[in-house]
Amino acid sequence: MPRRNIWTPWKRGSRPMPRKRLVIDASVAGAAGNTEHPISKANRDFLRQVLSVCHKVVMTPEISLERKAHQSRFSSLWRTSMTAHKKVVETCGTDDPDLRSGIDRCGLREKQRAAIHKDIHLVEAALLADRIVISGDGSARHLFCMVSSDVPLLKSVVWVNPAQPPADLQQWLERGGRPVKDWQLRPP
Amino acid sequence: MLADAARRGVVVVAETHSSLLLRGVQTLVAKGELSPQLVKLHWFKRRAEDGATEVHSADLDEHGRFGESWPEDFDEVSLSAEAEYLDAVEARQ
């Protein structure tokens, strides 16, 4: 199916394209270093696009630790290159007690609650940056969407899986990475 | 050796295509073993229209980072080679 062009082109020369700070999950870096067709190539292509476009990546201590656990030669080279080009935004990462307690009040089963808390740091980092999470974890996305009717803050966060892109991600990045309603964490 | 000479006040001009050499200099700066003030990077590029040489210069910060003014492709060679290899393996599966 042809991909819909849902962005108006960035008007070059009008004003600088906004640089988005993306939160990229370790699952993306991990997959990029493997050869699992077609997921790995999609993740590799996405990371290379981020390197070539002006956007930056957010790195908290927790994300950094996860990265090291999933490190591959490719992801290590990518991170080095991003760092050298001053495209890594190091932040301390902060728990959001309101977000966490809001999710805990949603009546999730213990297994679901544990799963959502495993990835909540990505959303917390995104909320302190430009509200964009890049992750291949579809189960976590589903859970966040499920609770978003009770935790409205989640609805502002875009969550994209590079291996199952809802549209052309390269164009999206090149045109400013603006929020797209359909990609946000909203109830199914 | 280059850093030792620079620290002694020698003006060292090194022409290289090695990203490893560049990374070594960056690492020394990031470790605090070489002042970024002692390093200047110049990228020479032939202009397609008239063949004239363009020079892009960059400084390192205290973390050894050159920022976005440095041409992407210099650093991308290893990444591209790695991606190409992984893509080829993936395509055979």
Structure explained in plain terms:
The complex is a heterodimer of chains A (188) and B (93). By secondary structure, chain A is of the alpha/beta class. Chain A has one domain (25-183). Chain A has helices at residues 26-32, 39-52, 61-69, 73-84, 97-104, 110-127, 138-147, 169-174; strands at 21-24, 56-59, 88-90, 132-134, 158-160. A five-stranded parallel beta sheet of chain A has the order 3-2-1-4-5. In chain A, helix 5 packs antiparallel against helix 6. The radius of gyration of chain A is 16 Å and the shape is globular. Chain B has 93 residues and is of the alpha+beta class. Chain B has one domain (2-91). Chain B contains three helices and two strands. Chain B has helices at 2-7, 19-30, 72-91; strands at residues 41-46, 53-58. Classes of the chains: A alpha/beta (188), B alpha+beta (93). Chain A binds chain B through residues 33-38, 40-41, 44, 48, 51-52, 54, 73-74, 77-78, 80-81, 83-87, and chain B through 23, 26, 61, 63-68, 70, 72, 75-76, 78-80, 82-83, 86-87, 89-91, 93.
What's the helical proportion of residues of chain A? 40-55%
Distance between the termini of chain A: 22 Å
Query: Biggest β-sheet of chain B: count, sense, barrel?
Result: 2 strands, antiparallel
- The count of DSSP E runs of length 2 or more, i.e. the number of strands of chain B, is 2
CA gyration radius of chain A, whole angstroms: 16 Å
A few lines on this structure:
The complex is a heterodimer of chains A (188) and B (93). Chain A has 188 residues and is an alpha/beta fold. Chain A is 45% helix and 9% strand.
Overview features:
heterodimer, A: 188 residues, alpha/beta, 5-stranded parallel sheet, 8 helices, 9% strand, globular, disordered N terminus, B: 93 residues, alpha+beta, two-stranded antiparallel ribbon, 2 strands, 41% helix
